[in-house]
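Lecture notes, unit on protein representations.

Consider one protein chain, 245 amino acids long.
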Amino acid sequence: MARLPTVLLCGKLLLGTTVALAADGGAAGPGAAPMTDAGTPALEDGGTVVDPSRLAEARALVPPPLLYGTFQPVVGTWVEYEFSSKQGRFPVRAAVVGEAIRREDGSPLYQVELDYGTKPRTLVVVWVIGGTRPMVERLAVSVPPNAPISIPVDLYMDQPELRGALTAETDTELRGGAFAGRARQRTFRRETGAAVTVVSTPKVPVFGVESIRDTEATWVARKTGTGARPELGSVPIAIPRTPGQ
């Protein structure tokens, strides 16, 4: 399945969502369940079930380290990945930069930023509702000189249909680098048949993900640290949820 790098596709989706909502007035069809901006019917717990025809779009709204990771929200902690694909290679620094309490239910809400070392610099911001099963509530993309824009997402970080079917799991050993030691390797198969290999270790902060490899791109953790601060410098233009969400 050909697609743009996640960061670029996110931007495309954000713009495309704006156009789609304007075209249909944000209304679902007669008798349909309320739809989110990711094209998914809403669940009673606030999450969503992704329509099979919208899997690629919805998957782009949950950055891979979140989708395949185990969230470890320590504010100020960051991990830098090397992202590589046919389009190029550049660093991506992912950091937990803020924490607040949601008025609706008292759950913690974390601000997670992925700073892509592209030109122009691209910042992807996700707001994650913490708990036993963290959920990506909203996502924003900032690409200068354009104003940042955000949309509601309402997808679980471990959304099964986005991850794909788990087909293999085994222990492995990282023989060098900052995260050397025992690790866990899992292989997922997506609806297209493409395989995704994920290596996880608690030595990697924020997500516990050392690497992600699929047919299109690779993420490899290189270094980590503390002291991260918010990089989003302005309030994003927020696309609201449609009535009934």
